[in-house]
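Human: You know discrete backbone vocabularies at least as well as I do. Show me how you would write down a chain together with its backbone fold. No explanation is needed for now; the record alone will do.

Assistant:
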Amino acid sequence: MTSFNEVGKFKKFYESRFGKRVLQREVRYLRKELKGRNKILDIGCGIGVFEQALPELNVFGLDISEAMLREAKKRSNKHFVIGSAEELPFRNSSFDGAFMVTTLEFLKNPKKAVEEVARVLTPSGKFILMLLNPESKYFKTRVKRRGSYFRKIRHRNLKEIENLVFKHFHTKAEYFLGIRGEDVFTTDKKDWAALYVIKGSKR
């Protein structure tokens, strides 16, 4: 269960100058990739920063934490639903777009979650998956910090996750979001890219 303290940590991060720069890059990427989609699901929406930053898109936010969703509802008038990524509370083919930002790697059953994403997407629906890159200098620095949520990651093998997604989607993958200290920049270098992005359309 998510505590109010954890909600506060996310708020503090996204309200910091560094957090805002990170969010700006992620939002720009998602906006470009999901443009033209009619109904989009954000799985693991947390405090709703993407819903707030993408007012022009029809995004539904899902999270398992009531505390996170209470904060999310303060940020925008988007639709928010409580539920598990491994058992999505939606009918088949309910969305034509979906994304997860640093969520799948924390789940107990990523295979089931990917299957659920494929189930709720329409034929040719698009999926954007942003994963923390354990090989990056950013990750290696942050994971050493006491109380870092990076320590809660259950799955660090990016290729294994990519194979799970490939079973249901025509995929492309790339390194994204260079971070050096609190500088945010464009890179496709594994050592500097904080995220690994897997994206594709449903098979």
The chain has a mean pLDDT of 96. Residues 169 and 203 are 5 Å apart (CA to CA). Helices lie at 4-15, 17-34, 49-53, 66-75, 110-120, 137-142, 158-166.
